[in-house]
Amino acid sequence: MTSSLDGVRFSVLDRSRTREGEDGAEALRATVRLAREAEALGYHRFWVSEHHSVPGVAGSAPTVLAAAVAGATSAIRVGTGGVMLPNHQPMVVAEQFGVLEALFPGRIDMGLGRSVGFTDGIRRALGRDKEDADRFAEQLEELLGWFTGAQTAHPQVHARPAEGLRVPPYVLATGEGASIAAAAGLPLVIGDLRGRERLLTAIDAYRAAFRPSPWADEPYVVVAGTVAVAGTEEEARRLLVPEAWSGAYSRTRGAFPPLAPVERIEELAMTEKQRGFFESGLAGHVHGTEEQVREELERAVKESGAQEVLVTTSTYDRGALHDSYRRLARLAGLTRTDA
Q1: Which of 177, 169, 26 is nearest to 110 (CA)?
Q2: Angle 20-23-27 (CA atoms, 0-180°, nearest 5)?
Q3: Per-residue pLDDT, 286
Q4: What is the pLDDT of residues 77-130, one digit of tens each?
Q5: N or C, which end of the chain is more exposed by having fewer CB within 10 Å?
Q6: What pTM did the predictor assign?
Q7: Which helix (H) or strand (E) holds 69?
Q8: What is the phi-psi region of residue 185: left when phi exceeds 0, alpha when psi lies from -120 to 50, beta otherwise?
Q9: Is 13 part of any domain?
Q10: What is the distance between the alpha carbons of residues 5 and 331, in angstroms, rounded to a whole number?
Q11: Structural domain that includes position 101
Q12: Residue 155: what pLDDT?
């Protein structure tokens, strides 16, 4: 029986979330272990993220972590989701990805975002300000020029070993990111998976405005979002609870904490405001049994026309997290039905 998921790639983005009682080193090692699992299950790529000064996230240096992931795997594509370009000098980013591509040829992706540090203190520590996000298109052009040798800002300078190498770039869409991706002729990564009207409008505009480039002949859309799969719908919903509470806590306390066990969260006496944020954090994600998730993903892919689904899921219980990815791989046809 033909499914709309046939031929669709499935990939994983992990943010190296910490759990209560563990340090950042364990979270980073767990990311590497998850990458090995994702490779064994048949996922197409494994990406890591960039966050600064967030107590509940250990992933602050994505190119360094990507090197560890690539070194621990052998076939899966490895990259970033993403490097926040406004936080860095384009030449340095080119050099870092050039080193990765030189060490792991044909396996490296360069996912790029336009966010800057989310507090004034972080931006000052990075030597950046909010306005730097407005330079993303200019920085992107310079970055790509370091690979092609076409950058003109520093004509006597060369980014080595990047120059002449081909590392596929992807634009993570926030705000005007979709239009920037279209103008540059680059693949687009955009959320969420439920096919909301704003998402579909942005994808349609991207495809309509896309200009072929040396990096991509035609539009390529990756839809990203949270997917939780379990034996029952309620079990899948409980996988979402730790991240939802972490988000609610951050919205009311100003700090993004490590993930807590579901049982402890269920016993909390939340304020009305916290409860509102918590319930909102549980909404808008794809979750359920394998059959329920398959139906939802088929609908999202059909509506968006996406060529790829990028899944980013966090929960306290890593065993349940790995089980969710195994179930997703099975329903997507990445592994045998008895895997």
Answers
A1: 169
A2: 90
A3: 95
A4: 999 998 999 999 999 999 999 999 999 999 999 999 987 766 667 777 776 767
A5: N
A6: 0.93
A7: helix 62-72
A8: left
A9: yes
A10: 9
A11: 9-226+306-331
A12: 86
In angstroms, the Cα distances linking 104 to 66, 146, 303, 318 are 11, 19, 35, 28
> What's residue 177's pLDDT?
84
pLDDT band at 338 (very low <50, low <70, confident <90, very high): very low
The answer to whether position 34 is within a domain reads yes
Question: Number of folded domains in the chain?
Answer: 1
The CA radius of gyration of the chain, in Å to the nearest whole number, is 20
- Give yes or no for a contact between 66 and 80, defined as CB atoms under 8 angstroms apart: yes
In a domain, 338, yes or no: no
Measured at the CA of 7, the angle between CA 221 and CA 177, to 5 degrees, comes to 5
Answer yes or no: is pLDDT of 196 > 90. Answer: no
**Beta strand pairing status for 221-225 and 308-311?**
parallel
Q: Please provide residue 28's backbone torsions phi and psi, each rounded to the nearest 5 degrees.
A: -70, -40
Q: Which residues of 132-148 are buried (b: 16+ CB within 10 A; e: fewer)?
A: bbeebbebbbbbbbbbe
More confident residue, 233 or 255: 233
Is the bond preceding 106 in cis, omega lying within 30 degrees of 0? Answer: no
**CA dihedral of 171, 175, 180, 183, whole degrees rounded to 10:** 120
Return the exposure string of 22-57: e unless at least 16 CB atoms fall within 10 Å of the residue's CB, then b: eebeebbebbbebbebbbebbbbbbbbbbbbebebb
- The SS3 assignment for 216 reads coil
How big is the chain, counted in residues?
339
**Percentage of the chain exceeding pLDDT 70:** 93
Q: Is residue 295 part of a domain?
A: no
CATH code for the domain of 212: 3.20.20.30
Calpha distance 132→300 (Å, rounded): 33
Interval 282-294 mean pLDDT: 95
SS3 12: strand
**Cα(107)–Cα(18) distance, integer angstroms:** 27
